[in-house]
Specification:
It is built from two helices and 19 strands. With about 300 residues, it is mainly beta. It folds into two domains: about 180 residues, Immunoglobulins (Immunoglobulin-like), CATH 2.60.40.10; about 100 residues, Immunoglobulins (Immunoglobulin-like). Strands 1, 2, 5, 7, 8, 10, 11, 13, 15, 16, 18 and 19 form a twelve-stranded mixed sheet that branches. It has a four-stranded antiparallel sheet with strand order 3-9-6-4, with no helix packed on it. Strands 12-14-17 form a three-stranded antiparallel sheet, with no helix packed on it. Strand 18 and strand 19 form a beta hairpin. The longest helix has 20 residues. The radius of gyration is 20 Å and the shape is globular.
Length: about 300
């Protein structure tokens, strides 16, 4: 991990040195999308799409171009685990509860999804958006490593925040969300903690992905790695965003040594014809309940 962080630091140093010679280097315009090289297991590009959020949300991040980066050795076991696979998004830096002063440097791995869209958002403790940036990676079925650097300002000496990364499918539905809690500091040196839990937050064991479900009842079984004390929200979402069924599930047991809690529930649904849906499981933040900090999903088809 130390070697990986050193690579990021050296790349950032070289990038910022270049910016000093050319003030416009590496900074995207607020009105034009820019294309930059990001590392992955195979070469790819990323296009930064300026956010539509209102000021003072940071809209012009600096993207750090890094050498092609392999999956860190410490994550290899998570990627090879068949029962509890690696998350589709992994925030490698900063780790949970890191103390961060401006600028915020984010290093992550992701399966970009159908359109390659990844949204990075930083939420203040009052639920406001401090950073809201949509990055478009080259669509691929493999993993992409990427890094971004975001200046920020806060009014207090320190503030508890939540950093979330979200991927989407071709219909704009959320495929995966991963969040890490951070502490923003107005002054001082950043203190980065190690990366956190890298496996999929919610693992669905039944029904299998892409399996048709019939009879008006979807029996759901799975495992959850709790991101907060909030209940799970299970939803069946159509391609147009309509919700066929929704239910909250409270986790009652303690997590096992593997970090998961088993759960099960039945979702009653009504459809008149074959209906493709995305089965989504999400969990919200304890302090800001409108902010989802973990989400996993899969595709299924509902039959009458």
């Amino acid at each position: 991990m130390l070697k990986f962080q050193i690579v990021i630091f050296l790349a950032a140093l070289l990038f910022l040195t270049g910016c000093a010679d050319n003030p416009s280097a590496g900074i995207t315009s607020s009105t034009h999308a820019a294309e930059t090289v990001v590392p992955e297991l195979q070469a790819t590009t990323a296009t930064l799409i300026p956010s539509t959020a209102a000021a003072p949300v940071q809209q012009t991040p600096i993207v750090i171009a890094q050498p092609t980066a392999p999956i860190p050795t410490g994550l290899a076991e998570d990627f090879n685990d068949q029962k509890f696979p690696a998350s589709q998004i992994i925030i490698y830096i900063p780790g949970p509860n890191s103390r961060v002063s401006s600028p915020l440097v984010v290093s992550a791995y992701a399966v970009p999804g159908d359109q390659g869209k990844i949204t990075l958002q930083l939420w203040g403790e009052d639920g406001r958006l401090i950073i809201d940036q949509l990055t478009k990676l080259k669509p691929t079925t493999g993993w992409v490593a990427f890094a971004s650097k975001f200046p920020f300002e806060i009014n207090s000496g320190g503030e508890s925040t939540e950093l979330t990364l979200t991927s989407f499918d071709s219909d704009g539905r959320r495929v995966a969300i991963i969040g890490v809690p951070l502490i923003l500091m107005q002054v001082g040196d950043s203190e980065t903690e190690p990366s956190g839990f890298a496996k999929q937050p919610f693992v669905i064991s039944n029904p299998p992905a892409n399996m048709p479900v019939k009879g008006g009842i979807l029996h759901l079984q799975g495992y959850a790695h709790p991101a907060s004390s909030a209940p799970l929200v299970v939803e069946l979402i159509k391609a147009n965003g309509g919700i066929v069924a929704s239910k909250q599930v409270t986790l009652k047991a303690a997590a096992s040594e593997e970090g998961y809690v088993a759960f099960s529930t039945d979702l009653a649904y009504t459809v008149e014809k074959e209906t493709p849906v995305r089965l989504s499981i999400r969990q919200m933040n304890d302090k800001t309940p409108l902010v989802d900090v973990a989400l996993s999903s899969q595709l299924n088809t509902l039959l009458p």
